[in-house]
TrEMBL record:
<keyword id="KW-0285">Flavoprotein</keyword>
<dbReference type="InterPro" id="IPR036188">
    <property type="entry name" value="FAD/NAD-bd_sf"/>
</dbReference>
<protein>
    <submittedName>
        <fullName>NAD(P)/FAD-dependent oxidoreductase</fullName>
    </submittedName>
</protein>
<dbReference type="InterPro" id="IPR023753">
    <property type="entry name" value="FAD/NAD-binding_dom"/>
</dbReference>
<keyword id="KW-0560">Oxidoreductase</keyword>
<feature type="domain" description="FAD/NAD(P)-binding">
    <location>
        <begin position="9"/>
        <end position="315"/>
    </location>
</feature>
<keyword id="KW-0274">FAD</keyword>
<dbReference type="InterPro" id="IPR028202">
    <property type="entry name" value="Reductase_C"/>
</dbReference>
<dbReference type="InterPro" id="IPR016156">
    <property type="entry name" value="FAD/NAD-linked_Rdtase_dimer_sf"/>
</dbReference>
<dbReference type="InterPro" id="IPR050446">
    <property type="entry name" value="FAD-oxidoreductase/Apoptosis"/>
</dbReference>
<feature type="domain" description="Reductase C-terminal">
    <location>
        <begin position="338"/>
        <end position="409"/>
    </location>
</feature>
<dbReference type="Pfam" id="PF14759">
    <property type="entry name" value="Reductase_C"/>
</dbReference>
<dbReference type="Pfam" id="PF07992">
    <property type="entry name" value="Pyr_redox_2"/>
</dbReference>
């Protein structure tokens, strides 16, 4: 192996799951040079899925969600300091404390943050929360444990639904407001979102769909007391959780010349970042929630994923490619996998449900609250979602990986799925929803306008 790739200076910006797994993999792959990890939070890397589940239920304290290290990456951890800029010519990362870090190769794994409530004055009311960081989860769990009269959740995506589920499990009254026709519709399509709506209402959630929250109200002393809705109704509540999806942390790259925009940083299948003119870089890599990457199984669409498993797998591919020459580099071709537990249901997804035009129930039924739904696009299987039937997921993963015909053939199904008539998947335009999708098909559209410079002379 060339010695220069195993030596030198590597900087990882982002000290969460992807950053940690990349640092570990670099050492496992034989990197012996200088390794620096930058993170804007003061604490070591921690696990985010428990924050909306066990932490809100009071089962574990937020500070116990630290990620176990597979090995000591022997890194210089720069925690509690943000990256504020990138100079790819000088190969330096600028930091908020005025210092800068030189690098030979850079991995960007800055992830996402919670989308804030758009009115800063209302967002600052005591009792208004977002849920993304460990501190936010700890503060919200403390407020829920105090027994508020009602909790208002804005957004019916996975995070908002899990928060509502935790509230009901704690015996708290909760109202969910979603601009779309049903909760989870942006992630799972129309059919399964109807089941989600039924389950929420059956568990006592005051579910309001097709409405937006127009204002958060305070009591005059800075405390949240309720919300006004677009249908003219008013909800009195003591706690509000804004669950409007995520914002990708790319602002610090605005002057870098990279293809970074609201949907993430574009990279190739080997995790190398593109610049804004579509030219791939050789020394800047991207991994995790902040990335946009092409996938051959989904029409080479650029995917943005907010998935735990994707962050791990992409970080490992990026780290491998950072210390190996071209012929030994690997593509990131993992099939997206996602899971959620809410209202007593275990929901697991494989593939990209939003990349579909039709669905069919392959096993079980909506009435039984136990089923496997298969998604297809232009005659090929592209995704599957199971509800309390996770053991079937590997079978459907194989169908996706092999681009099997849709509707799928007989196999793991407990009845002849060919007899079922596929129905439209009814995936709405995300612009009409409160909640952001956990998988975004970002297509081939550029994120910014480019100036075409004509040669002179």
């Amino acid at each position: 192996m060339p010695g220069d790739l195993r030596d030198g200076r590597i900087v990882i910006v982002g000290a969460s799951l992807a950053g940690l797994r990349a640092a570990e993999t670099l050492r496992e792959e034989g990197f012996s040079g200088s390794l620096t990890v930058v993170g804007d939070e003061p604490c070591p890397p921690y696990d985010r899925p428990p924050l909306s589940k066990q932490v809100l239920l009071g089962k574990v304290p937020a500070e116990t969600t630290g990620l176990p290290m597979r090995r000591d990456p022997d890194a210089d951890w720069r925690l509690g300091v943000r990256a504020t800029g990138l100079d790819p010519l000088e190969k330096r990362v600028m930091l908020a404390d005025g210092k800068s870090l030189p690098y030979d190769r850079l991995l960007i794994a800055t992830g996402t943050r919670a989308r804030p409530w758009p009115n800063p004055e209302e967002a600052s009311l005591d009792g208004v929360f977002t849920l993304r960081t460990r501190d936010e989860a700890g503060g919200l769990a403390e407020r829920l444990a105090a027994g508020p009269g009602r909790v208002m959740v804005i957004g019916g995506g996975f995070t908002g639904s899990e928060i509502a589920s935790a509230c009901r499990e704690r015996g708290l009254d909760v109202t969910v407001a979603e601009r779309g026709p049903a909760p989870l519709v942006g992630a799972l399509g129309g059919t399964l979102s109807k089941l989600a709506a039924v389950m929420q209402r059956n568990h006592g959630v005051d579910l309001r769909c097709g409405v937006t929250v127009t204002a958060l109200r305070g009591d005059g002393n800075g405390r949240f007391i309720g919300a006004d809705l677009s249908d003219g109704s008013r909800v009195d509540a003591d706690v509000c959780v804004v669950a409007l999806g995520a914002v990708r942390n790319v602002e610090w790259l605005a002057e870098s010349g990279l293809a970074a925009g609201p949907r993430g940083i574009a990279c190739d299948a080997g995790c190398r970042a593109f610049n804004m003119y579509g030219i791939v870089t050789d020394d800047i890599f991207v991994a995790g929630d902040v990335s946009r990457f092409p996938h051959p199984l989904f029409g080479y669409q650029m995917l943005s994923l907010e998935h735990w498993g994707n962050a791990v797998e992409q970080a490992e591919v990026a780290a491998h490619n950072m210390v190996n020459p071209g012929p030994l580099r690997r593509p990131h071709l993992a099939i997206p996998v996602f899971w959620s537990t809410q209202f007593g249901l275990n929901i697991k997804s494989v593939g990209v449900p939003t990349y579909s035009d039709h669905v069919v129930i392959a096993q079980g039924s909506l009435e039984a609250r136990r089923l496997a739904m298969v998604y297809g696009y232009q005659g090929r299987v592209t995704a599957a979602v199971t509800v309390d039937m996770a053991k079937s997921l590997d079978y459907y993963r194989h169908l996706i990986e092999t681009a099997a015909p849709f509707p799928p053939p007989l196999g793991a199904a407990d009845r002849a799925i060919a007899a079922d008539v596929p129905i439209p998947s009814d995936v709405p335009d995300p612009k009409g929803l409160s909640h952001g999708p956990t998988v975004a098909l970002t297509g081939h559209l550029p994120d910014r306008r480019l100036t075409v410079v004509q040669p002179t002379g």
